[in-house]
Amino acid sequence: MQHVYGLGEQFITPGEPNGDWVGRVRSPGNEFGNSLQEIDGRNGNVGNAQFPVMYAVGPGGENYALFLDHLYAQTWDFTGSPWRVETRSGCCAGTS
């Protein structure tokens, strides 16, 4: 897995179009993963809605999608290997 996309709407770096989650943590908005959050210390809010579909892209265009059917907010951690997914009601681990 070289790149990870999806998981809803959350700005990684405001003003940059890079939506790759590798090396980053996708954190939830609130208990159910959806909220309006302040952006970059400025006035105004942006959506932070979670959609539990991860799109992974590997070398040569190999790819897959993973849908995590779970009601509560999720934290996806792509900073290590294996990568991790934690939910408000437990934890599960994935592999890269």
What are the SSEs and their pairings?
Elements (H helix, E strand, L loop, with lengths): L2 E4 L18 E2 L7 E5 L6 E5 L3 E5 L5 E5 L6 E4 L6 E4 L2 E4 L3
Antiparallel strand pairs: 1-5, 2-7, 3-4, 5-6, 7-8, 8-9
Written account of the structure:
This protein is 0% helix and 40% strand. It is an all-beta fold and 96 residues long. It is globular. It starts with a strand and ends with a strand. The model has no long low-confidence stretch (mean pLDDT 79).
Backbone shape: globular
In terms of quaternary structure, what is this? Answer: single chain
β-sheet strand percentage: 35-45%
The strand order across the widest sheet is 2-7-8-9
Low-confidence region ranges = none
Largest beta sheet, briefly? 4 strands, antiparallel
In whole angstroms, the N-to-C terminal distance is 6 Å
Give the count of helical stretches: 0
Instruction: Give the tally of β-strands.
Output: 9
Structural class: mainly beta
Mean pLDDT across all amino acids? 79
Helix content: under 10%
